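AAA+ ATPase domain-containing protein
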Amino acid sequence: MASMMGVLAFCQSLLHTVFPPELRLASHKFFQRCLNWFSSYCYYDITEIDGVNTNELYNAVRLYLSSSASIAGTRVSLTRGLNSSTITFGVSNNDSLVDTYNGATVEWEHVVTQRQSQTFSWRPLPEEKRGFTLRVKKKNRQVVLGSYFDFVMEKANEIRRKNQDRLLYTNSRGGSSDSGSHPWQSVPFKHPSTFDTLAMDPVKKSEIMADLLDFANGESFYQRTGRAWKRGYLLYGPPGTGKSSMIAAMANYLGYDIYDLELTEVKTNSELRKLLMKTSSKSIIVIEDIDCSINLTNRKKNSNSGGRKNNHDAASPAPLGANEEDDGSTITLSGLLNFTDGLWSCCGSERIFVFTTNHIEKLDPALLRSGRMDMHINMSYCSFPAFKILLKNYLGYEETNLVLEELEGVIDEAEMTPADISEVLIKNRRDKSKAVQELLEAMKIRAEKTREKKWLESKRNEIEDEKQVQEKRALDIPQEGFDQLEDSCKKDDEKIF
């Protein structure tokens, strides 16, 4: 054995002497190329550090492999972050996972090696050298290079956006962009409202969700049609019908940030444009109770309301842009229209504008047209399908657990908002039967009041119509008879109202 070891050592030294390092390296490369030539696979290396910079593709692959449901492996690395409720998995060190894309099977291997002792560097490198090696068949090379890496990057961005904390922004005069500070102030957005918990007709809810999803996935459509990648939603209806909850559900569904724009804090149209420029993509810009922020009343209705000028009583609308405090704000209707559908509204992409109002008839038609407010959503009183969602959310009742025929027959006439019903359910959530019974009694009382209110309104309209008819005939009626008719109308008003 000793003699054989000596012979091998002598042969090795002889080879090193006869064959220089350059020749040995060339021979190794030649044999490696031969092996690659006859192999049916090709390999792509993605290192964590590209020179001195972080490789974004490595981070995207790591994030994609940690969340992709299409990947199967026998050995994975499980992690759970601090204050996190979800467990993520990834590729273990020096292990591999298999993925499938458009019929092509690829294999990812996470290669981790110890880095050799490094010389002085202005940026310290990690002790471990990490990277991914992608093995794919040569016949699928075009699929991988053509669209697979783009798919991985897109999925990673989507996962990153869903995992990151969403923010709720608000504007203030103290943060004016002229002073160099950011005009928006933010807090974490933690609203629990979702479309599953939203008390709304399921058919209408599905239409809204489909429209939102089409918008979020419609980048190529908007580019092809030459339209700005934005969409407007108008939420209108009585107070307490869930307009704010709808906005929160939209943000949670798409994973967008919310910019709550307070118009009373904006002085000029120029400042309004600067606020728009400071908003990010994938966001929802909200103006709640827009009819109360500044005067955006219907110009046609105002012009036809009467021919008298110089009448500045309390019922007359204030000048456009003047708010209740008269603090010098000069926002105009034109400035707000350009904010939502002008050239400045295109300084970004994937934005949603949401306006809410309790009185849609007060808003100017120019603000409501398609292109500004593309979808009008009537947040009306609670319907029976929405009521069943509230019962399930607050009391845990399913449709088969309770006889709902009596409630179904009275809920439409009661005209109760989801907020009114929720208050009754919250107050009696420990006693389900009591909650339902009290809610039924409350609905019957409200339904009776609603019927009386409608009857009184109909009688008032009849009296008003009769007055108008008699006024037209006033020239043909003697003064004594006209006075008797007026006294009779007054007595009817006192009797009814």
